[in-house]
Amino acid sequence: MRTADFKQDVTRSVYLKQMANRGETLTSYKVLNVLTYANSSGSYTAGQIIMEFNEDGMVSYGCARWISRDGKWLCEEPGLSRLLTIRVPCWVP
Q: Is residue 91 part of a domain?
């Protein structure tokens, strides 16, 4: 469910290795806000989910970016700070 750009930036093996090395346990999470972006015809084409994570008592925040391509919603950025790229989302003018 990842976009081709994300898969190019972060390979599956790197993603799995970094997640395993974190050694943290997700205790809870909250969705704080959902932002949606529409094209000129009003169809939703992208969105951001802003979340709060509690991992072993440490609170952090993340923003997962999603994009609609060919009728499927794909994750463009998972919101994991150690895996984020510097690529600007395609919907930012």
A: no
User: Residue 30 pairs with which residues in a beta bridge?
Assistant: 52
pLDDT in tens, 57-80: 888 888 888 888 888 888 887 765
Print the domain residue range for 63: 4-77
What is the number of structural domains in the chain? 1
64 in any annotated domain: yes
pLDDT tens digit string along 27-43? 888 999 898 888 888 88
Residue 34 bridge partners (DSSP): 49
Give the three-class secondary structure for 79: coil
Average pLDDT, the chain: 76
Q: Which of 56, 39, 16 is nearest to 90 (CA)?
A: 39
Domain-embedded: residue 20:
yes
Sheet bearing 72-77, strands edge to edge:
26-38, 44-55, 58-69, 72-77
